[in-house]
Amino acid sequence: MRPISVIAAVFISLITSMGIFPEVSSASTSSVAHMCADTQLTAAAESWSGAGGSDGFTVLIANQSQRSCTIDGFATLKFFSSNGQRIRAKVLHEGSMLYTTVKPYEIRLKPDAVASFAVSFDGAFVPPSDSPGACVARTMSLELPTIHPRFYPNNVFIVPTDLDLCTSAWAVGLTPLENGPRVKGP
Fold first, then answer.
1. What CATH number does the domain containing 108 carry?
2. In a domain, 14, yes or no
3. Local confidence pLDDT in tens for the 186 residues of the chain
């Protein structure tokens, strides 16, 4: 019985070295990306831009882990006043004069790769003394479509906004996540 096991081991070794049975390497097994976990990602808001009565800003999402992952769809947004009170606004899954409406698609984020989405609205930056407090969202919370949907401690990632929701008719446009640091423009 022992000679058969030796012969089998030699045979398998020869076949593998000749390339008949490809060896499985860690590179080929790790090529499948799984849905991103919130712990793999970090986010930051870019500067505001505007044109023709529309304003907005881009939010960048970066994969800070050593593993590729996938993400798609839309972020969930909530707005808050300076005293932390929630301000309700309708979030429309569409672009604006600044950002093109695109269909959501799956994005593969390699380590250090970036995805982005945009928030747009009518109106402009509002200095603190120019608008009633009930209209101005000083911060926006963000939740991403990840395996663990709660993104940061206290369940939110906070972005300073100073957004006058009265002048935007209590609505903002939101584009889906897109590959790369720039959201498509018109």
1. 2.60.40
2. no
3. 444 444 434 433 433 344 433 333 333 344 678 999 888 888 888 877 777 677 888 999 999 999 999 999 999 999 998 888 999 999 999 877 788 888 999 999 999 999 999 998 876 545 555 556 678 888 888 888 888 655 554 445 677 777 888 878 888 999 999 999 988 876
Q: Classify residue 141: in a domain, yes or no.
A: yes
Does the residue 22 lie in any domain? no
Which of 50-54's residues contact partners 24+ apart within 8 Å by CB, and which partners? 50/98, 50/124, 51/97, 51/98, 52/97, 53/97, 53/122, 53/123, 54/96, 54/97, 54/98, 54/120, 54/121, 54/122
Q: What is the number of domains present in the chain?
A: 1
User: Is residue 52 domain-resident?
Assistant: yes
Q: Which residue has the tokens 């798609």?
A: 72
CA gap 59, 54 in Å, rounded: 17
Which of 4-35 are b and which e, b meaning 16 or more Cβ less than 10 Å from the residue's Cβ?
A: eeeeeeeeeeeeeeeeeeeeeeeeeeeeebee
**Range of the structural domain that residue 175 is part of:** 33-179
